[in-house]
Amino acid sequence: MTFKELGLAEPILQALETEGYTHPTPIQEQAIPILLTGKDLLGVAQTGTGKTAAFGIPILHHLYEGISLSQHKRKVKALVVTPTRELAIQIGESFTAYGRHTGLKNTVIFGGVKQGKQVEALRRGVDILVATPGRLLDLIGQGYISLKHVEYFVLDEADQMLDMGFINDIRKLLAKLPAKRQSLFFSATMPPSIVELSSKILGAYEQ
Ligand code: AMP
C-alpha cells in the first residue's frame, strides 16, 4: 500500500514525499484508514513505530479538508497530550513537517520554562496544540487556551502518563473537552489501569 492509495490530500502527500516516506509503516497502514472514517482508536504502539504520523496525518487531512469548506479561523481543533517535553517537541516537529503545505499551524507547550513565548504563539492562533498536562491546565486556568473547539483529542504514551502521576490532570482535562470529538489513545502497554482510563476517553473504538 502507498500513502496515495490511502486517499490523503495532495499537500500532505507532497510533504510525505519530501520526508522521503514511500510506504506507510504497519501501524500507519492499520490506523490511518480507521481514523479517516472518524472512528475512535486504541493503539498499542511504542515510539519508533511511526505512530506520530499514524495519528498526525489523518488529523492534518481532516483539518485541511475542513479549511476549504469554511472560513478558516485559528482555534485549537486538535489537542495532543503527551507526558514529556521531549515527546511534545518531537510531535510538534512532525506536525510542522507533514503539514508544511496545508497552511495549518501547530504550537507546543510544556512546563519548566517561562510561559511568555508559548502564550504569544497561542495569541497568534493555532489549529493544533501539543502539550504536556500541567502547563496545559495552567494556561487553560489563566484563560489563554479554550478547548471548546477541539474535534480531535490524542492521549499519547498513556502508560507513561499514569506512571508520572498525571491521572488527576487527565481527569480534569477530560471534563473540559467537548463530548463530540474523535479520540485517539496510545499506550505502549495495556495494564488494567490503562484499559479503565481508555474506557473513559473513547467511545466505540477500533483497536
Ligand atoms: P515515531 O514512532 O512516530 O516516533 O516515528 C519514528 C520515526 O520513523 C520518525 O523518525 C519518523 O520520521 C519515521 N517515520 C514515520 N513514518 C515513516 C514512514 N512511513 N516511512 C519512513 N519513516 C517513517
CA(first)-CA(last) distance: 20 Å
Small molecules in complex: adenosine monophosphate
The whole-angstrom Rg is 16 Å
Shape: globular
Strand order of the largest sheet: 3-4-2-5-6-1-7
Portion in helices: 40-55%
Query: What's the SSE pattern?
Result: HHEHEHEHEHEHHEHE
Which structural class do you get from the secondary structure elements? alpha/beta
Total beta-strand segments: 7
Oligomer: single chain
- Residue ranges: pLDDT <50 for 5 or more in a row? none
Average pLDDT level: 95
What is the number of helices?
9
Strand share of the residues?
Answer: 5-15%
Major β-sheet profile: 7 strands, parallel
Descriptive key words:
alpha/beta; binds adenosine monophosphate; 7 strands; 207 residues; globular; 47% helix; 14% strand; seven-stranded parallel β-sheet; 9 helices
Task: Write a brief structural summary.
This protein has 207 residues and is of the alpha/beta class. 47% of the residues lie in helices and 14% in strands.
Kindly describe this structure:
- This protein has 207 residues and is an alpha/beta fold.
- It has helices spanning 10-19, 26-36, 51-69, 85-98, 116-124, 133-141, 158-163, 167-176, 192-201, and strands spanning 40-44, 78-81, 106-109, 128-131, 152-155, 182-187, 205-206.
- A seven-stranded parallel beta sheet has the order 3-4-2-5-6-1-7, sandwiched between helices.
- α2 (26-36) packs parallel to α3 (51-69).
- It is globular and about 45 Å long.
- The chain binds adenosine monophosphate.
- Residues 21, 24-25, 28, 47-53 line the site of adenosine monophosphate.
